[in-house]
Amino acid sequence: MEVSATILLYFDDPELYQSSATVLDIRENEDGATQFILDQTIFYPQGGGQPFDLGTIQTENSVFEIESVRFADGCVLHNGKFVGGSMGVDEVVDLKIHIERRILNARNHTAGHLIDTAMANCNFNFTPTKGYHFPDSPYVEYEGMIEADDREDAVEKLDAELARLISTGGKVESLVVDSYSDLKDYCKYVPTYVPKDKPVRVVTVAGLGCPCGGTHIGEISDLISVKVSKIKSKSGNVRIGYRVEG
Ligand SMILES: [Zn+2]
User: Fold this and answer.
1) Is the pLDDT of residue 1 over 60?
2) Which of 52, 183, 192, 196 has the CA that lies 20 to 30 A from 87?
3) What percentage of the chain exceeds 90 in pLDDT?
4) Beta carbons within 10 angstroms of residue 7's beta carbon
5) What is the pLDDT of residues 164-189, one digit of tens each?
6) 110 CA distance to ligand 1 centroid (A)?
């Protein structure tokens, strides 16, 4: 069945933890799990280094527990199992997010942006190449090199800048730009993986814009404390490991 692209409610309101949607399709995925496609969703599908959301799709008599959320062909795919009752196409359902998990992921992800800003402010002018914002050991990678002898100093400088940015605070802002060429007006670095043929959302954290489709917290000072845990450099890449406390 052909279904239209899912409306991403988390784009405009990352703090929307509960909403409703209409079921467009229910099918079996390649792993044998049940898969829901909805007209709109609050669930973040894994991507951009951020884990997927968990939660439930519910009606008065039925509960579907989400086990993973993915994105393909413009659609958000909600995979999981019924823990009670059943639902059908065209039914209006309630969506509920696992709030603690979402907030943890949004904090770790936002902290990754703050590392980008701290790097630029400390004159490490490297292009970001990869972000991993999972809670186990998050990091951001850049094209560049920090020599072994300079790493202790770099950690100290970055930690001081992160603390300053958090105490200064400010809103995390986002806007959608219509064309790839407009990105340069907002972003110091444009990663190569950014699509060139469709509108892109730009997220600005403490003055530095970055193309990004993830979820973020609203206020930088709510991060409380972000510290660099480790700097590694290998084959022209530098990896900044970090931890978010508080
Ligand atoms: Zn982001």
Assistant:
1) no
2) 52
3) 77
4) 13
5) 999 999 999 998 888 888 888 888 88
6) 6
Boundary (domain end) residue, out of 97, 119, 148: 97
Distance CA 213, CA 61 (A): 34
Expressed in angstroms and rounded, the spacing between residue 177 Cα and the centre of ligand 1 is: 15
Determine the structural domain holding residue 80 and report its residue range. 7-97
* pLDDT single digits (tens) 31-87: 999 999 999 999 999 988 999 999 999 999 999 999 999 999 889 999 999 999 999
* Same structural domain, 139 and 51: no
d(Cα 91, Cα 14) in Å, to the nearest integer?
25
How crowded is residue 220: how many other Cβ atoms within 10 Å of its Cβ?
23
Per-residue pLDDT at 122 exceeds 90: yes
- Dist. CA 111–CA 205, nearest whole Å: 9
Residue 119 DSSP code = H
Do 137 and 237 reside in the same domain of the chain?
yes
Q: What's the rounded mean pLDDT across residues 97-125?
A: 96
Query: Whats the size of the chain, residue-wise?
Result: 246
How many whole angstroms separate alpha carbon 206 and alpha carbon 117? 7
How far is the centre of ligand 1, averaged over its atoms, from the C-alpha of 154 (Å)? 24
Give the C-alpha separation, 114 to 67, whole Å.
30
